């Protein structure tokens, strides 16, 4: 029961913050379009770099956690085999 409550709670919180996150996209897009029309392209390149950074970080964290999980599981399996 507690696990189901946690899943529903975190899903609801994620949904609520998800809709608020879309509001910033229009502001960033308008800013970049305004700067590009004035001949300034460095802000757009910086924004693209930021998007790539945000895109890669969750996958990098998952890979690091997976590596540590695999290493600990391998050590645990080796310890069990010795006894």
Report on the structure:
The protein has 83 residues and is mainly alpha-helical. It has a domain at 1-40. Helices cover 92% and strands 0% of the residues. It contains three helices and no strands. It has helices at 2-21, 23-37, 42-82. The longest helix has 41 residues, at 42-82. The protein is elongated. The two termini are 37 Å apart.
Structural class: mainly alpha
For the sheet with most strands, the description reads: none
Number of strands: 0
Q: Tell me the radius of gyration.
A: 22 Å
DSSP strand content: under 5%
Q: Level of helix content?
A: over 70%
Distance between the termini: 37 Å
Overall pLDDT level:
81
Sequence of secondary-structure elements: HHH
Sequence stretches where pLDDT stays below 50 over 5 or more residues: none
């Amino acid at each position: 029961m507690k696990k189901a409550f946690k899943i529903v709670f975190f899903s609801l919180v994620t949904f609520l913050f998800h809709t608020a996150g879309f509001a910033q996209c229009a502001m960033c897009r308008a800013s970049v379009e305004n700067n590009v029309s004035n001949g300034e392209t460095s802000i757009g390149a910086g924004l693209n770099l930021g998007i790539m950074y945000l895109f890669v970080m969750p996958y990098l964290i998952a890979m690091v956690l997976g590596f540590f999980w695999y290493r600990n599981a391998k050590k645990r399996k080796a310890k069990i085999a010795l006894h």
